[in-house]
Amino acid sequence: MAVLRNDSRIILHLDYDCFYASVFEVEQPALRSLPLAVQQKQIVVTCNYEARRRGLHKLQLIKDAKRICPDVVIVLGEDLTKFRNASKELYLLVRSLVWGGRVEKLGFDELFLDVTEMIDYNISVLNPNDLTNSFFHLDRKDPTIGTAYDATHFQGSTFPVTEGSPVPTDLSSLEMRLLVASHLQGHIRSKLEHQIGFTATGGISTSKLLAKLVGSVHKPNGQTTLLPPYQSTLENESNVHRFLDEHEIRKIPGIGSRMAQKLRAHITGQEDSDAKVTVRDVRLFPGMGPPLLDKILSGLGSAKGIGTKMWSVLHGVDNSEILQGRDVPTQISIEDSYGRLDTFEAVRRELVTLSRSLIRRMRADLLDNETPPGRWRAHPRTLRLSTRPRLPPGSETGRTYHSNRISRSAPLPAFIFHLDENMDALAERLVQESVLSMFRRLHPEKSGWNLSLLNIAVTNIVESAGDQKQSSGRDIGKMFQQQETVLRDWTVQEQEPEAPVDVLPPDSEQAESDDWEDDEPLASLDCTLCGCPVPLFAHEAHMMYHSVPE
Ligand code: TTP
Ligand code: MG
C-alpha cells in the first residue's frame, strides 16, 4: 500500500546542546572548559560535553557521577526560572527570523521551523549564473537584510555523505531547496551561538519526523540535511528508506517499548525477543502492511487506525503541521514529592506552600510585563489537585510507579486574580475555600493514607480578548500529530480503580526525586510522552522537563 508523503515543505529542527549546562556556561564562561553537571535532587539531569568526555551522561545518579569524575563541578538546577528565560529568549530570536513566525517549541530545548516560504522566495531570486555569490534574503521588503552564501554547496553534513556532488541543475528541485535551507539553518545556528551563546544541533528535511531524526546524526553543534531522492524508483531506493531503515524500531519517535516489543515478537517469532529489529525488518516483512500491523498491535489498547499510522511512520511519512507557540502556557502546574505525608495538618501546610508558588507563577507568566498593577493576559478556568498515594511496600510495580496519580478539578475562584491582595493571604484562602474540599473528595478517609506527591495546577487557560490566539506550541502531545495519537493511544494510564479521577497529563514544577532511595529497582521505564527509556529514579526529573511552559 502506497503512503503519500508531502515533500513540498521544508522543515528545520533544532536541539540545543546540553541545554541546562549551557545556561550556566553562558552565565559563567569559565565553566565551559570544566566538567559540569546540573543536579536536580540526586540526579545529573544533564552535563556539558567535557563531562560527557569523562564518562558522565544524562540521568545519572550524582554519587556515580562523582565517583567517575571526582572533579566534576556540580550546579543546582531545580529552579527552572533561568532555563525558562533562556528558552524563551532563544525562541523569540528564532521566531523573529522565520517568516510568519512558523516556529513550534517542544519542551525547553527543541524547535521545529517551517521555512517553506523563505526557501521558495530565496530560490526564486537565485542567480543561476553566479550561485557562489548568493545572498539569502531574510526580509522580502528590505533586500539588504540577509546573509551571503555559496549556493554550490550544502552547509554542514548530509545524509548520505557526498563529496563535491554537482549542484542540481534544476533550481526548483527538492535538492536545491534543501541546499538553500541548509544555509538558513547554518545562519540561525550561528545567530543563536554568537548573539546568545548557545550551540544547537540541526536537522533539515521535509517533515518534523525526518528533520528531528536526521538532526541527531551529528551531535553536538552540527547539522545534517537528508538528501533526495525521497521517493524510491525501480532503480534507486529513496534516501528516506536508506536512512530510516537502519534505525532500530525503538529509536523512532512514537514507537514506544511495548509496541517495539510486539513488533519484535512478530518479526522474530519469539516472545520477549531482544534481538535488534530495524525499520527495514518490519517494513519488508512478508505480508506487512496496515492490516497486519493492526493485528500485531491489537491488544495494547483501542487505537483506531494504528496500523495505518505505524505504516506511515515506518515510511517516514509525517504530514503534521508546525504548531505555532502561544504567548501563554496551556497550564501552570506546581508539585512536590514527599518521603512521608500522612497527616492532615502537614498536607494543609504543603498545599499552602504549593498554592503560593502557583500564584507567583501565574503572576509571572500570565500578567502583562507592564509596570504594576498589570493586566491579566490570560485567565485559567480550572483548578486541579492531584495526589499520588504511596502503595503498600511490595505492591508497587515499575509501571504503576509513575502513573498512579489521582486528581480532582473544580472551577478556579475569581479572587485569585486580585492583584491588591498579597500572595500569602490568597494562598491561604485558596486552600481553605477550594483545595481542601477537593482533597477531601480525593481522600474521604480522615487518615490511613500516605502521599508521595501533591500537585496543584491551573489549566484551561484562555487568552484575554484582543490577544493573539494561536494553537499551543508547548503541548508535548502535539509533537508529531500522528505519533501523538500513537503515544496517547498506547499510554498506560493506571489509576486506583476506585478513584474518581481525571486522566492526568504528567507535569511538575518542584519535582523531587527522593523515591530512588526507596529500594526501587534501578530499571528504566519508558516515558509515556516522549517514549525515552528513563531510569526509575529519574522519572520525576524527566517529567519536570516535560512540564515546561513557554
Ligand atoms: P535534552 O535535549 O535531552 O538534553 P541536553 O540538551 O542537555 O543534551 P543534548 O546535547 O544531548 O541535547 O534535554 C534538554 C534539557 O532538559 C536538559 O539540558 C536537561 C533537561 N532534562 C531534564 O530535566 N530531565 C530529563 O529527563 C531530560 C531528558 C532532560
Ligand atoms: Mg538538547
From TrEMBL:
Residues 11-256 form the UmuC domain. Pfam families: IMS, IMS_C. Residues 385-404, 495-520 are annotated as: Disordered. One of its GO terms (biological process) is DNA repair. SUPFAM superfamilies: DNA/RNA polymerases (SSF56672). Residues 509-520 have a biased composition (Acidic residues). InterPro entries: DNA/RNA_pol_sf, DNA_pol_Y-fam_lit_finger_sf, DNA_pol_Y-fam_little_finger, Rev_trsase/Diguanyl_cyclase, UmuC. It comes from the Eukaryota. Transmembrane segments: none annotated. GO terms for molecular function: damaged DNA binding; DNA-directed DNA polymerase activity. PROSITE patterns: UMUC. This is UmuC domain-containing protein. The lineage of its organism: Eukaryota, Fungi, Dikarya, Ascomycota, Pezizomycotina.
